[in-house]
Design a protein that fits this description.
Layout: H1 40-47, H2 75-97, H3 107-112, H4 123-148, H5 150-157, H6 159-169, H7 184-188, H8 194-206, H9 212-227, H10 232-242, E1 262-264, E2 269-275, E3 289-292, H11 294-297, E4 301-304, H12 311-328, E5 332-339, E6 352-355, E7 364-365, H13 374-386, H14 399-416, H15 422-430, H16 433-446, H17 449-461, H18 469-477, E8 496-497, E9 507-512, H19 518-536, E10 545-550, H20 559-566, E11 573-579, H21 587-596, E12 599-603, H22 608-618, E13 620-632, H23 638-651, E14 656-668, H24 672-677, E15 683-689, E16 695-702
Parallel strand pairs: 4-11, 4-12, 5-9, 5-10, 6-9, 7-8, 10-11
Antiparallel strand pairs: 1-2, 2-3, 2-16, 12-15, 13-14, 15-16
Protein name: ATP-binding protein
InterPro entries: P-loop_NTPase
Biased composition (Basic and acidic residues): 1-11
C-alpha cells in the first residue's frame, strides 16, 4: 500500500511492466513522399550475361562447360605426387651441390666466363656463379613442377581460385554503346525522337520504374516499328509520354499478381529445374538450369506421369505463368484448359476466364469457334463430338459426321442467321418431325433449293442402319444438361469467347466441369483443341506465338488432333499436353503422338510399358564400354614390398595389374526399366527439340530445384 492508500500493482499480472515517468515518446513523422524504388536490381538483371547455349539450358548467368568431362586427379593423389616431385628435385640438387654426380654440370659456366673472373674473391665471379646456380635450380624446379602438377594445384587451390568468384562480383558496367539499359538499338536507328525516347527509358530503368515485363513489351513494340506495323512517331510519342508504362497491354496490367517460377523475359525462358549431375547426362548439361521457351514450345510438348508426379505443379503451372507474362509483353496468346480448381493460376492472371457450368461465369464458350462457314463449323464440331470414335489408323477421319452436321447447320443458318443452340441441334439430329418440318417450310419460303436438297439427303439417311446421326445426338445430349443450360448460347445474349481472338495477346483460362461431367469435359477439350488448330492456321499476324495448354488430355488425342499438332510448328504455335499414362491414347496413335511432339517428358512413376514407348522414340546410341580386369600384384622381395608401400601411399590403392578392353556397343539411351525404376521422385527424363531442328538428348532433371 502507498501512503495515499492505493495499491501499487506495478510488476504484478495486472501491470507487469512499470510505466515510465514523463510523457510518452513521440512517433516519428510520416514521410511526405513514398521512398523511391531502387533500379539496381533491374539493371543487374538486365546486364547479366546470357551466352548462347544448347537447347533447354537456362541462359541467365550461364557458364558454358566443355563437351567432354576433363580428367580430374584426386586431391590426395595430386598433393602426394607434388610432394614426392619436390623431394626428388631436392635430392637431385643435393647430389649436384655436393659433387656426388661430378662437376660436368659446371662446364657450361667455365666455357662462358673469362679467365679473369675465375680468380678467387672476384665479385664478377661470385655474381655469375651464383646466377648460374639459380638458373640450374630453376630448371630443376620447372621439371619437377611439371611432373608434380604444381600448376594444377595453383589453379585449384591457389589465388586464381580465390579470385574466381570475386571477378564476377566486381564486374564493371558495360560501355554505354553496349549497355542494354541505354537502349543502344533504339539509339542506332537514328530516327527522329529515338534518342530522346532512349534517354527516357534509360532514366526510368535507373530510377527503378521499369520491370522485366516493361522491357520486353517495349522491345516488342520497337520490333513492330522495325517491321513496319507501327510508325516511329507513334512509338516515340508514347515512350516520351508514359516512359516505362508505354505501349501497354489491353488489360493495362504490367505484371502478374504473383510468380511461382523463375522467369527471364529477355530470353523468354522459364526455369523448370536443374539437370542432374548424373553419368547418363552429357557433361555439358550437368548441373545447369533446365528452361523452356517459345522456341521449344513451338514444337509442342507431351508430359506423361501418374497422378501426384508433378505434371501440373512443376510443368503446366510454370509454363502457363511464363506464357501469361509473354502475353503481357505482347509476344504471345495463351489458352489454358483444365479442371476447375486444378491450380492453373489465379483468375487475376488471365484476361478471360470461362467457367463452364458455373453460374457466375462472366464468359461463355462459342460452340462453333466464331466461324460463319457451316462446313468449317461442322468439321470442328464433328471432331469434338465423335473424334475419339474414329478409327485411329492413317486415312481414317470424321468425314461422315461432318457431312451430317453440315446438312443441318447450313439450312439452319440460312433461315435463322445463326447456328442452332445445343437443344435445337439435338432435336435436329434426333430427326424430330416438328423442327425438321419448320426448317423445310422456311427454306421453301426463302427459295433455298440447294439447301432443301441437303435437308432431303439428311432425311433419307435417317432411316439407314449405319446413320451416324444417332451417335451425334447421343453425344450432343451430354451437353444438353441442366448444368449447361446457360452456356453455348447462340442468340447473342451472352459473352461467348472464340479462339478467333488469338490474333491478339490474350490470356484465357477455361475451367472444365470434370466432376460429374467427365464425358462432357472430354468433348469440350476436343472442341477447344480443334478450334485452336483451325484458328492459328489462318491468323494474319503469325509473329505472335500462340499456345494451348491442356492439363489433362485424356480422351483428346484423335487422328485429326495428331495431324493438327503436326501443323502447329509452321503457324508459330504449339500445344502442351499432359497424360497420366499413354494407355489413355489408342495404341495406333501413341507413336504418331510422340513423333509429332518435339519435347517429351517422362516423369517419375512411369509404368514399364509406357517407358517402352519413350525408349523406342528416343532410340539408341553408340557408347564406349570399358571392361576392366584388376589382378593384385604380390611382392616377394623387400625392395618390391617397399615400392608397393610407396605406391599405395601415393595412389591410395593396392598395386594391381590392370587389363582394359574397350568396345563400341549400341544401347538404348534410356531403357523402359530405367524409366520405370531409376527416376527418383520429383525428377523427370525429358528430350527437347526447338523450331530450328536442334535437339537435346534425354536428360534427367530435378524438377524440385
Amino acid at each position: 500500500m502507498d501512503s495515499d492508500g492505493t495499491r501499487d500493482v506495478r510488476g504484478t499480472h495486472a501491470n507487469p511492466v512499470p510505466r515510465p515517468a514523463g510523457p510518452p515518446p513521440a512517433m516519428p513523422p510520416r514521410p511526405s513522399v513514398p521512398p523511391r524504388p531502387d533500379g539496381s536490381a533491374f539493371l543487374a538483371w538486365l546486364r547479366t550475361p546470357r551466352p548462347e547455349a544448347a537447347p533447354g539450358v537456362w541462359r541467365f548467368g550461364h557458364r558454358p562447360r566443355p563437351e567432354e568431362e576433363p580428367e580430374v586427379v584426386p586431391g590426395r593423389q595430386l598433393f602426394t605426387g607434388a610432394l614426392i616431385a619436390f623431394l626428388v628435385g631436392w635430392l637431385i640438387w643435393s647430389l649436384l651441390w655436393n659433387g656426388y654426380l661430378g662437376g660436368w654440370w659446371l662446364l657450361p659456366l667455365y666455357a662462358m666466363i673469362p679467365d679473369s673472373w675465375a680468380q678467387p674473391h672476384s665479385i664478377g665471379a661470385v655474381v655469375v656463379v651464383y646466377a648460374y646456380y639459380v638458373v640450374v635450380a630453376l630448371i630443376i624446379m620447372v621439371g619437377v613442377g611439371r611432373l608434380g602438377r604444381w600448376s594444377e594445384i595453383w589453379r585449384r587451390y591457389g589465388p586464381p581460385a580465390w579470385r574466381r568468384g570475386a571477378a564476377a562480383a566486381d564486374a564493371r558496367p558495360p560501355a554505354p554503346d553496349q549497355d542494354p539499359a541505354d537502349w543502344p538499338a533504339l539509339r542506332a536507328a537514328g530516327a527522329a525522337g529515338a534518342a530522346d525516347a532512349a534517354d527516357r527509358l534509360a532514366a526510368d530503368a535507373r530510377a527503378g520504374l521499369m520491370r522485366d515485363v516493361d522491357h520486353a513489351r517495349i522491345t516488342r513494340a520497337w520490333q513492330g516499328v522495325r517491321s513496319g506495323r507501327h510508325s516511329v512517331a507513334t512509338f516515340t510519342g508514347a515512350v516520351l509520354k508514359d516512359g516505362a508504362a508505354a505501349c501497354p497491354h489491353p488489360s493495362g496490367e504490367r505484371d502478374l499478381p504473383a510468380r511461382l517460377a523463375r522467369h527471364d523475359l529477355l530470353t523468354g525462358q522459364v526455369r523448370l529445374g536443374t539437370t542432374a549431375d548424373d553419368p547418363r547426362n552429357p557433361y555439358a548439361y550437368r548441373g545447369t538450369g533446365l528452361a523452356l521457351g517459345p522456341e521449344l514450345l513451338g514444337t509442342s510438348l507431351l508430359a506423361v506421369g501418374p497422378a501426384g508426379s508433378g505434371k501440373t505443379g512443376t510443368v503446366v503451372r510454370p509454363l502457363a505463368e511464363s506464357l501469361c507474362l509473354h502475353a503481357l509483353a505482347g509476344r504471345a496468346a495463351v489458352v489454358v484448359v483444365g479442371a476447375a480448381g486444378a491450380g492453373l493460376g489465379p483468375a487475376d492472371a488471365y484476361d478471360v476466364v470461362v467457367r463452364i457450368a458455373h453460374p457466375e461465369s462472366v464468359y461463355d464458350l462459342d460452340l462453333y469457334g466464331g466461324t460463319t462457314d457451316p462446313d468449317e463449323a461442322a468439321a470442328i464440331l464433328a471432331e469434338a463430338l465423335v473424334g475419339d470414335l474414329a478409327d485411329p489408323h492413317p486415312g481414317s477421319d470424321t468425314r461422315r459426321s461432318t457431312t451430317v452436321l453440315a446438312q443441318l447447320l447450313g439450312p439452319f443458318r440460312a433461315v435463322h442467321g445463326r447456328f442452332p443452340s445445343v437443344p435445337e441441334l439435338r432435336r435436329l439430329l434426333d430427326g424430330a418431325p416438328g423442327p425438321m418440318s419448320e426448317l423445310r417450310a422456311a427454306l421453301q419460303d426463302a427459295g433455298q433449293d440447294s439447301l432443301l436438297r441437303e435437308l432431303d439427303a439428311r432425311e433419307r439417311q435417317m432411316g439407314h442402319p449405319g446413320d451416324v446421326g444417332g451417335v451425334l445426338a447421343d453425344r450432343v445430349a451430354l451437353l444438353d444438361r441442366p448444368a449447361f443450360a446457360g452456356f453455348f448460347d447462340t442468340s447473342g445474349q451472352s459473352r461467348p469467347f472464340s479462339l478467333k481472338a488469338l490474333d491478339h495477346p490474350v490470356r484465357v483460362r477455361i475451367d472444365l466441369p470434370e466432376r460429374g461431367h467427365a464425358d462432357a469435359s472430354r468433348i469440350l477439350a476436343r472442341l477447344v483443341l480443334a478450334q485452336f488448330t483451325a484458328s492459328v492456321a489462318v491468323r494474319e499476324d503469325r509473329s505472335l506465338f500462340a499456345c494451348l495448354i491442356l492439363d489433362d488430355a485424356t480422351g483428346v488425342v484423335t487422328p485429326e488432333a495428331v495431324r493438327g499438332i503436326q501443323r502447329l510448328r509452321s503457324a508459330n504455335a504449339g500445344a502442351v499436353l499432359t497424360l497420366r499414362t499413354l494407355d489413355d491414347v489408342p495404341r495406333p496413335l501413341r507413336g504418331p503422338l510422340l513423333g509429332s511432339t518435339g519435347c517429351r517428358i517422362a516423369l517419375s512413376g512411369l509404368t514399364p510399358w509406357d517407358g517402352q514407348d519413350f525408349a523406342e522414340v528416343w532410340g539408341k546410341e553408340w557408347t564406349e564400354t570399358r571392361d576392366v580386369t584388376d589382378r593384385q600384384i604380390i611382392a616377394e622381395t623387400p625392395a618390391g614390398k617397399a615400392v608397393h608401400v610407396l605406391r599405395r601411399a601415393i595412389t591410395g590403392k593396392a598395386p594391381t595389374a590392370r587389363a582394359v578392353t574397350v568396345r563400341q556397343v549400341e544401347r538404348e539411351r534410356w531403357s523402359a526399366s530405367e524409366l520405370a525404376h531409376a527416376v527418383p521422385p520429383g525428377h523427370a527424363v525429358l528430350s527437347l527439340t526447338d523450331v530450328q531442328g536442334e535437339h537435346a538428348p534425354p536428360l534427367l532433371v530435378d524438377l524440385r530445384d
